[in-house]
Amino acid sequence: MTWLLVLALTALATMGLPLFAVLGAGSLAASYHAGLDPAVLIIELNRLAASPNLTAIPLFTFVGVVLAAGGAPQRLIRLFNALLGWLPGGLAAVALTACAFFTAFSGASGVTILALGGLLFPMLGSVGYGERFSLGLLTTSGSLGLLFPPSLAILLYGIVAKVNIDQLFLAGIVPGALLLILLTLYSIYNGAHSRVPRHPFTLGALAGALRTGIWDLLLPAGIVAGIFGGYVTVSEASACAAAYVLVLEGVIHRTIVLKRQLYGLLKDTAILVGSILIILAVAMGLTNLLIDAQVPMHVLDWLERAIHSRLEFLLLLNLFLLAVGCMMDIFSATVVVVPLILPLAERFGVDPVHLGIVFLANLEIGYSTPPVGINLFIASQRFGRPVLSLFRAALPFLALMLLWLAIVTYVPQTSLWWQALGH
Amino acid sequence: MSELHRQPPLLHRIRRGLLATEGLAAAASLLALLGLSLAQIVARNLLDAGLPWAETASRHLVLYVLFFGALLAVGSRRHIKIDLLGAWLSPHRQARLVRPLSVIAAAVCAMLGWAAVRYWIDAWTHGGADTLWVTLMDLVIPLGFALMSLQFLLEAALGQTGAPEQTP
Fold it and tell me: Does A150 sit behind a cis peptide bond, omega within 30 degrees of 0 on the bond before it?
């Protein structure tokens, strides 16, 4: 009976029933099966309102929405182009850096490809990059800054796993930078190989770009300094950032007419937040019921018989999470999968902060893999190319990302370096 | 005559009215959350005085943003889906799935809404006087699920003719 229900819900999910409804149906069925009043699901849902740092999710989402509408992508491209455009493969490095920077704020919701991809694709083509390389680069770049603060994915993992978000932000910096460097090196190699012409570095162009872009650069710098300097909490940083971008776009750059556009921006933010958090709200009850039914314990028993070392566990975890990444988006996967793998990781001695980075790294790759890699679909829509040719274009980048995943997984110091500093 | 013109216009009007109200509620909740968070920072750092109720109120406002945002996501068809089949089906076949899936989603929301009503009545009956305002704020949970059920029913009734609401 249980298997029939699981099969029916899986079938409905693949047909396109909203995920929160799939999980809601599963929660209701699980509560009836356990002989519990479904009101327990609402008690769990209401516990969401007790989560620390919860307010940071809507406010940081708002920051991303306002920046996208206010023209931050154009300013960032101009700035990074003046700064890095002179390098061999410079424009590709610009694309990677700008996308990573912007994704950290927009939460890899596809806005990066829509906002930056449309600008960068013709630019890359006009300086001589092959179409396949450009498409691959822009498709994978849609989730590149996922490990940098104040990434929405990190915030959500911290809330679900009850892990310190400050520590997660610190842990993501080195792996995030490592991936950026790896992909930049590949782009430099490709730029040199394709004989892409370089443009000279000029101080005037940099100064001009800095004048408009400096305020955007100050935002992440201020957030990082504020949180790690102990001046503000994560929630307070999000409120300050939201007020800052309103002043930045509405008063300094005047790219947004607040009186006319604020309502639409608030509404758009609410849709993004609502579609993510409703899954978390509904899944909280289901997760608890699964834990009460000792499902993770049964999996653990099986794993303990089959697996004998941390390395084996991590390898299996990577394979499992890559498969999850092919099927689910990062937010749903965080809500559904993290509570189940946390006790397993603990049993095999994997630090929950390291687990978070490994988890997000796997899912970051899943963004560009079929059948439901959201980057592929958004890029397909944006560039008018079939999903499979975009996947083929992304393959060299994905290969590098797999190498990076291996480093991040098997060298925990890349995520836990800050522990040596006594944080 | 197109299918759009055969639909009872009343349902379209109800849908449009609901989405407009939900949009206002979502925007107001988010703006209130921002205002309250900033007020807390100012009170703590500049006036050296905390707002003890503000933390609880802020977190409950997130629930308001969550539910009204989720309601808007129904109207704009932006709920997160796994949708393996949808990506490979023709638009015509996808359209045929809208009605049955909306009915199922409506039923799930109705059941969750009913559970929320009983939870809320229990909290209201047994809650202390000092936390009544928090229980009142919790009304958004049953209300949110009930409205979502209604919204999905409207989507089912209107099918593909209830075009997704545009967002900026």
Answer: yes
Looking at the domain assignment, is residue B3 inside a domain? no
Region A363-386: mean pLDDT is: 81
pLDDT tens, B141-153? 999 999 999 999 9
In the numeric block, the tokens 């970051």 are attached to: A364
In a domain, B167, yes or no: no
Range of the domain at B128: 8-81+91-162
User: Has residue B28 got a pLDDT over 90?
Assistant: yes
Q: Residues A247-261: what's their mean pLDDT? A: 94
Closest CA to B158 of B74, B92, B98, B112: B98
ipTM of the complex: 0.91
Number of residues that this document lists for chain A: 423
Average pLDDT, chain B: 87
Element containing residue A243 per DSSP (H, E): helix A234-247
Query: Rounded to whole angstroms, how far apart are CA atoms A383 and A376?
Result: 10
Nearest CB neighbour to A267, from listed B23, B59, B112: B23
Residue A289 CA to residue A282 CA, distance in Å, equals 12
Contacts of A127 (CB under 8 A, 6+ apart): A91, A196, A197
Quick check: A353 and A347 in contact, CB under 8 A?
no
Question: Which H or E run includes A337?
Answer: helix A330-347
- What is the DSSP secondary structure assignment for residue B163, as one 8-state letter? P
SS3 annotation, A14-73: HHCCCHHHHHHHHHHHHHHHCCCCCHHHHHHHHHHHHCCCCCHHHHHHHHHHHHHHHCHH
Neighbours of A363 (CB within 10 A): 26
Tell if the CB–CB gap between B38 and A239 is shorter than 8 Å. yes
The answer to whether A54 contacts chain B (CB < 8 Å) is yes
Closest by alpha carbon to A97, among A79, A124, A115, A119?
A79
Q: Tell me the pTM.
A: 0.85
φ/ψ (deg, to 5) at A240? -65, -40
Q: Is residue B111 part of a domain?
A: yes
**Helix A118-126 vs helix A374-383: angle between axes, to the nearest 10 degrees?**
70
How many CB atoms are closer than 10 A to CB A392?
13
Of A16, A46, A274, the CB nearest to B68: A274
Pair of tokens at residue A415: 């995520």
Is the residue at B64 inside a domain?
yes
| Distance from the A349 Cα atom to the nearest Cα atom in chain B, whole angstroms | 32
Tracing tokens 């909740």 back to the chain, one arrives at B29
The alpha-carbon gap from B39 to the nearest alpha carbon of chain A, in Å, equals 10
> CA of A308, closest CA in chain B: separation in Å?
34
Residues 6+ positions from B97 with CB-CB distance below 8 Å: A15, A16, B86, B89
Residue contacts between A and B (CB atoms, under 8 Å): 216
Which H helix or E strand runs over B23?
A: helix B9-45
Are the C-beta atoms of A99 and A123 separated by less than 8 Å? no
Cross-chain residue pair A278–B97, CB shorter than 8 Å: no
Number of domains in chain B: 1
